[in-house]
């Protein structure tokens, strides 16, 4: 039983380490006049919108966020892979 508790504690520590490492990963996306900065925990750090982008704001924002999320997911998978050999992550990076 104590062995299981130790394993749970180790997993929890690994998750916290991963979360801290991802917070340091910064993704910058520029899409049709919108500049978005997001960290590996998918927290938006900043956003700026040019006058040009305001014409089609809703669509441009959606596209920019989707691109940022995709890049963040790739960065997360790479970070997780570098921290330990986890099965299935190689498929995400292709």
Automatic annotation (TrEMBL):
GO terms for molecular function: DNA binding. This is Nucleoid-associated protein, YbaB/EbfC family. It comes from Candidatus Falkowbacteria bacterium CG10_big_fil_rev_8_21_14_0_10_37_14. Pfam families: YbaB_DNA_bd. InterPro entries: YbaB-like_sf, YbaB/EbfC.
């Amino acid at each position: 039983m104590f062995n299981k508790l130790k394993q749970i504690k180790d997993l929890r520590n690994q998750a916290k380490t991963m979360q801290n490492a991802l917070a340091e990963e910064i993704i910058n996306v520029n899409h049709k006049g919108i500049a978005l900065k997001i960290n590996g925990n998918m927290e938006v750090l900043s956003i700026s919108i040019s006058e040009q982008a305001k014409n089609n704001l809703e669509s441009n924002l959606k596209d920019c966020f989707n691109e940022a999320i995709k890049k963040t997911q790739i960065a997360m998978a790479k970070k997780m892979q570098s921290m330990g050999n986890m099965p299935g992550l190689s498929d995400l990076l292709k």
